[in-house]
Amino acid sequence: MRASWQPAADIRQLRQRARLLAAIRQFFACREVLEVETPLLCRATGTDPNLNFFSSQFHQVPHTQTLFLQTSPEFAMKRLLAAGSGSIYQICKAFRNGEAGRFHNPEFTLLEWYRLDFTLQQLMDEVAELLLGLLRAGLPHLAVLRISYQQLFKQHTGLDALAFNRQAYRQYAVSRDHPEADMICGEDHALWLDFLFSHCVQNSLPGDTLCLVHGYPAIQSSLARLLPEDTRVAERFEVFINGLELGNGFFELCDADEQESRFDREIAHRQQHGLPAVAKDQLFLAALKAGLPACSGVAIGLDRLLMIASGCDAITQVLAFPVGNA
Amino acid sequence: MATYSTNEFKGGLKIMLDNDPCSIIENEFVKPGKGQAFNRVKIRNLKTGRVIERTFKSGDTVESADVVDVEMQYLYGDGEFWHFMVPDTYEQYQADKNAVSDAVKWLKEQDICTMTLWNDSPLSVTPPNFVELTITETDPGLKGDTSGGGGKPATLESGAVVRVPLFVQIGEMIRVDTRTGEYVSRVKE
Fold first, then answer.
1. Which of residues 98-117 of A touch B (CB under 8 A)?
2. Which of B7, B32, B56 sits opposite A198 (nearest CB)?
3. B140: preceding bond cis by omega (within 30 degrees)
4. Is the predicted pLDDT of residue A23 greater than 80, yes or no?
């Protein structure tokens, strides 16, 4: 397909994007959450083995430095929180290499915010309030469902997400016409959950419902705290509407040592699997050591939100110039 | 053997799956924000024609299938094999019953067909989109009926049976769309 100079999105979607951005800024202005900007090009980036980054060379004669386009503004925003910013939000671009498809563009727009002293429940309330408000015009009858990951997984698959049983997982996958799952996932519990959730659960979520799925298994905790009373579960939630993943939130991990050991595990995983090496973000770790105040944070993909608000079924329909003709 | 990474997946790509040559119909990138990326792919088995869905871990590689489409002229059938020739090189191929499959009922000597070769052996034959064939058998129909409402079955020289308007008679040549099996028009010789 030859790239066209013309925008992929209809002008209506561009107008709707502008209204969406204005409404989000209004929402946070009313709540006295500070809008901030952090760099997209940084000296370090996340170690998550499932996120591929773009890197670039910064030339400042006689020095050359590798800089990374951010996969999310999380580390820089947490440095602001540690410096006493109070609750903050940001609307920015994030970059993820290798991601392109019906719901993915390697460069996309994120809304990320952090709320001081918010529990995960309070943040989920706020996410629901924001999204219901933003989608009122397009989806006036949007219901809200809060459900734990374990319960949802059990409901759809009959399997226990927290207790790995390869034989049961394999049998279920075969019964759902995915005989290849066992070869792909093997003994990797987290990979099994990714496979089964994305193939058998996500697309069966109830329609026209804002689904807040909380209590992710600890092996998928990422930057979330573990639940003190049940360390098999992380204080993490995800938001879905009509099967589309819109965002991810954490009760943020503040423990610098725990954070560093999670980085080390991910770096080791990268080495084992021949993935590009990354260094730990020392400035972020230094900020955690100085003290990150108790907070919850969430990131929402705005392009996908716009898809839902405007009834589009491909991300290219809401981007002026998706990667194919950027 | 050449391989393809899942990043190269797109409609029409020929890959080996379970030892059979297959063609990718549709490729969907599936990735949880914090998890493993997959490619969910709809695939046609070129041997059986069956369409299946299969998931790959993104970044994995699969063997490519040496499958090419070549325009060939149909020469003749000897009962066991159907013989084709590449017009430019005069190179000949013989396709068996499995390869010719449903195309057999449209084959007319000297027509140009598309032969799909796997490792240089005939895998399947696609007839031209339109063929012109003579009617060998059909009911005479009512005199004076020129409207063609309803129609009647007609057997063609190649063996195919198609519905034709009532006014079309034995010995006439008609044009047929092989993709739908539908009558298009009479052909004036």
1. 98-104
2. B32
3. no
4. yes
